[in-house]
């Protein structure tokens, strides 16, 4: 509450509508259908968009972006499961596999540089 008794709204925070639109954009990329691509190719495609979201929304209220960026990691895990037969039915193993890559190649994805990486196990 401010001195005037009006609740202040944080400027630059991410609205639920904006988060929903970002998650829909991630779904529209349909990464799990692109199992013929490499992780580097996916990174070059999505990094400019994610960097733009982080620069625009993450400037003032970074923690609001975590939900969307974790959704991006889940989409990458689904891609891993489609790409590699051994991990097809093992979501936790696919998450750990991707986490190991994130630990080794922290600059591959923009949100990994921000610290939003899959767990390594």
From TrEMBL:
Listed Pfam families: GIIM
Location of the Group II intron maturase-specific domain: 20-97
UniProt name for this protein: Group II intron maturase-specific domain-containing protein
Organism from which the protein derives: Heliorestis acidaminivorans
């Amino acid at each position: 509450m401010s001195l005037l008794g009006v609740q202040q709204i944080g400027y630059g925070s991410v609205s639920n509508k904006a988060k929903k639109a970002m998650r829909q954009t991630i779904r529209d990329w349909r990464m799990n259908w692109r199992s013929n691509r490499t992780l580097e190719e996916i990174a070059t495609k999505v990094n400019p968009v994610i960097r733009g979201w982080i620069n625009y929304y993450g400037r003032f209220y970074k923690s609001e972006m975590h939900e969307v960026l974790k959704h991006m990691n889940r989409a990458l895990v689904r891609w891993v499961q489609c790409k590699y037969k051994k991990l097809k039915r093992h979501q936790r193993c696919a998450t750990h596999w991707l986490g190991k890559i994130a630990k080794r190649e922290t600059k591959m994805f923009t949100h990994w540089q921000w610290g939003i990486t899959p767990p390594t196990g």
